[in-house]
Amino acid sequence: KLLKPKASHPNLPPGSFGWPVIGESLEFLRCQRGGCPEKFIRDRMSKYNSPVFRTSVLGEPMAVLYGPAGNKFLFSNEGKKVALWWPSSVGKLMGRCLVSKVGDEARSDKKMLMSFFNPEALKRIVGVVDEVTKDHLRIHWEGKDQLEAYSTLKQHTFDLACRLFMSITDPQLVSRLADHFHVFLRGVIDLPLNVPGTNFYRSKKAADSIRKELRVLVKQRRVELEKKTASPSQDIMTHLIANGDENGKLMPEAEIINNMLNLLFAGHDTSSSTLVLIIKYLSELPYVLEKVVAEQREIAASKAGGELIQWGDLQKMRYSWNVISEVMRMTAPVYGSFREALVDFTYEGYTIPKDWKLHWSACTTHGDPDYHPRAPTFDESRFEGSGPAPYSYVPFGGGPRMCLGLEFARVELLVFLHNLINGFRWSLVNPDEKIIYDPMPIPVEGLPIRLRPRD
Ligand code: HEM
């Protein structure tokens, strides 16, 4: 398939399939590890002088669509010309759940999950997020002169996801799940070779162990729901156990467990990676930090005697959110994602054959100087007023497959920033530490920072 594109498709986009089997995967990954995923795309865009080019990565023939026009095409054609696609390792490890489903099935799962992630539902949990964040900072940050920010933040976002998605408070269970997850993550985007010794094999075993733990938890919650010692609105797990879809059909237990596994996967590394980037950028931009401090101190001052952060307080954090948005523009936490062609179609005069994979790139879009003037410069004022043009700022994707956790992430990030700013000053141990993508942006040394209490 890779080497012999169909003769009936003479008008393929310009580009190269690279080497047999591996295609151009090595260059694709080398650019990520070098901290610059967009280089792979930019180099080819200028070489072929075209808004779309062909390549082969992850063992698949692929068309890469450039910029806001490409994003608009892919996001608005979901279920028509294209559908969400993830490398086959993802589907094999996750089993049947939102990310491995398309069309009506995906829509139904997403609707059920969204009832926990919409702003109305999130309003109720802001205080809990604040409480968990304060506990985390007290236990892991207070009294320390130095710590490694990335691993510490990863622990925080994982704890928070366990607590909020499944009401898990037992630290031993959280720690067992975290250990399994550590192994699981290494094989998620890998060749799906289920033979001992491979990352995928270890990842599959870890996923089985996580499922086993979650199965026990589901049984426990069913009993608690019956006894009314748990409520259907306390977390996503109980919500899914107790509530059916719009036709009243309950989600099968195996799918509840798969969806929980997927939410833990999608919802903690993305946030910890973003938090570590926020800390790094703020350390390098004292004039921005000063304004964030002013905004956050004013909000803290309005809270009498340790009152927890509420939804309304988050709406006042406008400047801080612009700063976080600009951090995600400068270094997109998710470099982009993939779709699959459902039919042969034409894009910009080129034929894209059915079954080809498609890639949209947040990194490349965010660095486009036509849409983001002086793109390499940090400028949070880009988000004032109506902000960037449609489809030119896409850290959470777009269309029907847009990130489900975007509002939750906003709560998590702002609440953390609020508590960090009000409690601590920090500086980077290694100001030149590089950020690489693996597959999310991470500082190569884990971002060690020196800490002092703010006052
Ligand atoms: C800063 C943090 C985050 C970023 C940058 C981010 C980014 C993304 C992106 C780019 C996608 C793919 C969209 C597409 O293909 O069009 C996505 C999908 C998804 N995200 Fe997030 N995400 C974040 C946090 C979260 C959190 C906290 C959760 C869970 C609560 C979450 C759950 C999901 C799920 C379930 C999907 C799949 C949606 C679908 O297939 O319809 N994400 N996210």
From TrEMBL:
It is a single-pass membrane protein. GO terms for molecular function: heme binding; iron ion binding; monooxygenase activity; oxidoreductase activity, acting on paired donors, with incorporation or reduction of molecular oxygen. Its cofactor is heme. It is found in: Membrane. GO terms for biological process: sterol metabolic process. Heme binds at C403. GO terms for cellular component: membrane. Keywords: Heme, Iron, Membrane, Metal-binding, Monooxygenase, Oxidoreductase, Signal, Transmembrane, Transmembrane helix. The keyword Iron applies. Its main location: membrane. CDD domains: CYP90-like. InterPro entries: Cyt_P450, Cyt_P450_CS, Cyt_P450_E_grp-I, Cyt_P450_sf. Belongs to the cytochrome P450 family. This is Beta-amyrin 28-monooxygenase-like. It comes from Rhodamnia argentea. The gene is LOC115753223.
